[in-house]
Structures are given as structure tokens and as C-alpha cells.
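Hi,

Apologies if this is the wrong queue. I'm a grad student, and the batch job for SAM-dependent MTase RsmB/NOP-type domain-containing protein from Brachionus calyciflorus produced an output file that my downstream script rejects. I'm not sure whether the problem is my script or the file. Here is the sequence I used:
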Amino acid sequence: MNFPNEQNRKYFTDNTSEYLEKSFQKVGLDKVYFEKLLEWLSKSPKWNTLRVNKNLANNSKDSVNDIQNFLDKSFDNLNNKLLKEGVYFPIPKCKVLSNFLDECIVYEYSKSKSMQDNIKFKSDIKCIIDVKCAQAVFRGADIFIPGIISLSLSAKSQDLICIYADLEGKCLKGSDANLYFKKSVDSLQFIGTGWLLYDRDQIFKNSEQKLYFSGKIKGIGIRLKELVDGSYTPPFHYLNQTKYFPQNLPSIICARVLDPKPGQLILDMCAAPGGKTTHLAEIIGNKGQIIAFDKISSKILKMNELCKKLNTKCVECFVTDATKIDYSVYMAESFDRILVDAPCSALGQRPLIFNNIDVNQLKSYVNYQRMILENAVKLLKPGGFMVYSTCTITLEENEEQVSWLLSKHKKLKLVDQTPFNFAASSGFQCEGLDESQSRLLQRFCPSFKSEDDLNDIYYDTNGFFISKFLKEY
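Support response: The file is valid. Your script probably expects a header line. Output copied below for reference.
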């Protein structure tokens, strides 16, 4: 079923789209490639990935059984609830991804076997949520109270409701969702359906004509039924949060590519929220020292909480701006391994619903990343390894940064990422980067050639980029 806003959809502002399209043209990629890229980005990956915390989990086999039991119970509960509607979700089977990544357990989203369009698409009870919340919903989250912007005036607890994302961010909090839908349907994107857990007036409160959250309730506001494509996955927050950590596959691979060893001094320069940091600690079995930076104190507090929850004992977190290193505290050429998972434009996040980033914002990341990379090179020991990664798809933040690094720092050498080179594509050639060098890069993004299997888990990830460098003596 098509909705009014599905034709000629916009994913970026016109200026940003034009800038990105021209950028890819520099490496011989035409408009057709760009359109396929946008289509791929707009869809949520079909796979869920969980990282097993090896500090606490016994072995991969036990973990697979544990997660499969969680899936069995979750889908049994959902299917019992949907029995009267004639809708059934097959229970997915989970598995260890690879012998090289035995901490990574994967399973597919489930697709309903019966599509009840009259229930799914024609409910008069509507909810509007923000784009960030919508992206989380597509990755398996329920809808928490803060993500709800607007509800129908008649909305009551246990209503089955249609859920829409506010693409332009113009819907007023607490407003009438039906009224906004009539006026602004082209700025809304249908997400799926779910059960409302509270009455509207329990969520919103009217005082002096200003609508705002009542503050009476917290937590989950809408339990997801199914997404627009008929798919469903149980929310991760019902799993054991100490043993299993939801993490995108490229992020899991990224820590493996750095290949830290027990006893080494390791630096994570842009560490929040801490997924890769704690993974590095698990890889070395808490035997070594990991220094983690972030410039925002609240993020460091949350990282400390995560480290405690995951039994991570070798990490020290510091409020530090990675562009402004105090070399009286951190000696030059002192770290064996450095991870620079840099702040970036994050255009690889899927599903792409709408991103209002402008061209100036896009361009600003390049210089910021270079300031961090300059410090990383200075802090890295001769003989040490550095990984530079981003969760974006732009050439300027990826291949062109690699080219700049190699031209500026002659002691840096690109190295092979085997046996962890799982990406769908290698990097693009660009000025200063030849074919042999580009093949050493991992670009988690399909090339959209005829032989690409877009359903394969290594093609169906978030957009991501990984490069690895050796600092020679």
C-alpha cells in the first residue's frame, strides 16, 4: 500500500543531495548509483546482531541457546495475542556469525504470514513520533514516552494505533495527531502499528493552553505490533543486558580489526557510548590498560556505568577533548593501539528517514577529524597500529581522509585487515589512493553490482568505513 509521501521522497535537503551526488561523481559513480544508495539507506537492515560479553557468558553455544529461548518466548507471546487476527510471525533462528567472530550472534527480523491491511493501515487512532525514535523502532525498539510527540484526542490505553514519523520536526508536542495528519500528511512517514499502553491524558497534560508531558508515567508508551513492511523483532531491553550487548556488525568488526593484545596500552579517542571500548576490554580479557576519552562529562558517567555493568575492569574513562591533548599527561608515542572512531556526519545509519544536515555541517567534520587524527598519530608508538573508522558514507570523511593521512605522515602505512575483512566492498579509489591501497579498506555499503546479494548479512549492515594503519619505525 502506498502512502501519499512515498512518491518522490526526500531524504536530505536539495543542497545536501546535490553535494553528495557530485561527490560520488568524482570517483565515477553516477546518479543511478546515488539513487540505489538512498534506497538502500532508507531500509532497515534485516538482521539483528548481539555481542556476547565473554567476561560473563560461558560459551557461544550456551549464548545461542539463551537467546533462542528469549526469541521463542517473545514470539509465542506475540502470536498468542494476534491469534484472533489470523496473523502469525515465524520464530527466527539465531546463530554464531563466524568462527572469527564467535562473540557475534545474529538472527533475522520475522515477517508476518498474514497481512491484515484493514487493521494495519486504517486505524483512526494515530501517533506521531520524532525521527530519532522512529529509527530506533525500525531496529526493534518499543516506543518510550519521550519519543511520543502527538496522539489522537480519543486515544486510550490498549488502542491499536498507526504510528508516523515527523520528518520535518514541526509537529507540536501534545497536539491532535489526526488534525496534524490532515494538514501535513506529506511530511509524515508511516512506520507501523502498535498498542498504546496509556490513555492520552495520562501522557499529556493541559495547563494554560500549553501541552506537555504529564510526568506521571515513564518508560514504554507504545508496544510495537509490526513495522510497515510486516516485520517484527523483540526489543533488546528484555534480554540480559549484562551478557548481551546490541551492537551493529561493523562496530563489532571494527574492534576486532584493531587486534589488541593482553598487556598493551590502548587508547579509544572518541569512546562514547562505550560499545567498542568494552569490546576491546573483552578481547584482551581485561588484561591490559584502556584509556577512553570523551569531551562530554555526562557521557563519561554513562560509560563508567556501562563498564561496571559489563564487568569491564581495565578501562579508565576521562573527560578529554581528543583535539586538545595534554602531552604532559599523555606521552607522545606511548600507545600500542589507538582507535579513532571519529565524530562524523553519521549518514550510514539505517533506516534513513530524513536528515536535515546542511552542506556546511557536512564539510565541518573533515577538519575536526583531522585534528583528532594528528594527535592520534603523535600518540601512537612506532610499530603500533591505529584504526580510523566512521559510520558515514561520504568520500571526504573516509577515503579522502586516508589519502590525506598517508600524504602527511610518511611513517603511516595502510595494512590488510585479514581475517576480519568482512565488508561488502573495498574502498573507492580517489586522488592519492591507488587501487591496491583502496582494496585494503573496508566500506560497509554495497557496490550495487548485479552479483551483490543485498540480503546477505555482510551487505545488509549500517553504512560504515574501516581503515587500519601501521606506524613504521
